[in-house]
């Protein structure tokens, strides 16, 4: 809490297993989108409280943090016995804004591919601005932020600590920034996979028409057309590039020095090679 001549700030209670930032000094974010998040925060707010927030974030005073399309819910340990409850929410996109956002991405598949790779292309912010959309808050009025502490300031140091932790989380998973705008990753790519002019009912009807009915007769189902011969089946190498892991995205609060996605891809590749080798050995044994 701030010092006003007669009111001495209280020291926070020590936390053993809090979420600490990886940054020990200097900048909190390395990627441009994480830096932009911090830049907006520092542009809007009181530097003294932000400095204490940075200290809280580095000390690990944040004891819990969850990011969903409904906002951020966090617990921050202050000087009192129980942690304070913190919530942060960006103004979500309206239905019309959501449609414009899908339109912007649908016309730029390269940007989508880069996002799947864990990157937020800088061009997406410019495209959104042209479409009248904003990824980042334009002012602090665009952020609903509350803390249960008695400090009247907004943001207080507890809120600031969560803001700084979010910058590191955005560095690892830029989709979290979209999540705060009410955009779920799966829903976004599902929308990009279909026609933007089709309603969900129309898309369902198209899918049904594209499915050929299966033969009712068992011999017709399992057999081949008269006079036709089935080609020999050749062993194909297993190709696995950790697609599912990449789709799930980086772990926002991964604290190891190792690259999680790179390690998983190496593991998948090693497993695929082992499976191929085992199948080849079995084929040679049968010969």
Written overview of the protein:
It is a single chain. The protein is of the alpha+beta class and 287 residues long. The protein has 2 domains: 32-191, no CATH class; 237-287, no CATH class. 46% of the residues lie in helices and 9% in strands. The chain is built from 12 helices and 4 strands, in the order ααβββαααβααααααα. It has helices at residues 32-44, 47-59, 95-106, 109-116, 122-130, 157-172, 175-179, 185-193, 200-209, 218-222, 243-248, 260-286, and strands spanning 62-68, 71-76, 84-90, 143-147. It has a 4-stranded antiparallel sheet, covered by helices on one side. α1 (32-44) runs antiparallel to α6 and α2 crosses α6. The radius of gyration is 26 Å and the shape is globular. The termini are far apart. 24% of the residues are buried. Mean pLDDT is 76; it is low at 1-7 and 194-203.
Q: Give the terminus-to-terminus CA distance.
A: 78 Å
- Radius of gyration, whole Å: 26 Å
Detail the poorly predicted runs. Answer: 1-7, 194-203
Would you count the extended β strands for me?
4
Major sheet size, sense and barrel closure? 4 strands, antiparallel
Strand content: 5-15%
Task: Write out the strand line-up for the largest beta sheet, numbering strands in chain order.
Answer: 1-2-3-4
Q: How many structural domains?
A: 2
Shape: globular
Number of helices: 12
- The proportion of residues forming helix, as a percent range, comes to 40-55%
Based on secondary structure, the structural category is alpha+beta
SSE series: HHEEEHHHEHHHHHHH
Mean pLDDT: 76
């Amino acid at each position: 809490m701030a010092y006003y001549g007669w009111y001495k700030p209280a020291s926070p209670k020590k936390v053993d297993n809090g979420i600490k930032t990886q940054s020990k000094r200097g900048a909190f974010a390395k990627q441009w989108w994480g830096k932009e998040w911090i830049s907006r925060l520092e542009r809007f707010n009181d530097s003294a409280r932000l400095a204490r927030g940075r200290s809280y974030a580095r000390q690990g005073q944040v004891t819990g943090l969850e990011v969903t399309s409904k906002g951020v819910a966090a617990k921050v340990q202050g000087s009192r016995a129980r942690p304070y409850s913190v919530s942060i929410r960006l103004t979500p996109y309206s239905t019309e804004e959501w449609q414009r956002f899908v339109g912007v991405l649908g016309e730029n598949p390269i940007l989508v591919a880069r996002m799947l790779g864990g990157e937020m292309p800088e061009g997406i912010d410019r495209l959104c601005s042209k479409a009248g959309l904003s990824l980042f808050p334009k002012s602090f009025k665009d952020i609903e932020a509350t803390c249960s502490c008695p400090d009247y300031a907004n943001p207080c140091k507890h809120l600031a600590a969560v803001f700084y932790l979010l910058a590191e989380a955005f560095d690892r998973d830029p989709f979290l920034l979209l999540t705060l705008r009410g955009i779920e990753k799966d829903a976004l790519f599902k929308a990009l996979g279909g026609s933007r002019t089709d309603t969900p009912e129309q898309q369902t009807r198209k899918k049904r028409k594209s499915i050929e009915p299966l033969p009712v007769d068992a011999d017709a189902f399992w057999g081949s057309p008269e006079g036709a011969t089935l080609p020999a089946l050749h062993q194909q190498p297993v190709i696995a590039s950790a697609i599912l892991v990449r789709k799930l995205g980086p772990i926002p609060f991964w604290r190891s020095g190792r690259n999680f996605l790179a390690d998983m891809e190496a593991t998948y590749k090693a497993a695929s090679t082992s499976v191929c080798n085992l199948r080849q050995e079995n084929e040679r044994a049968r010969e």
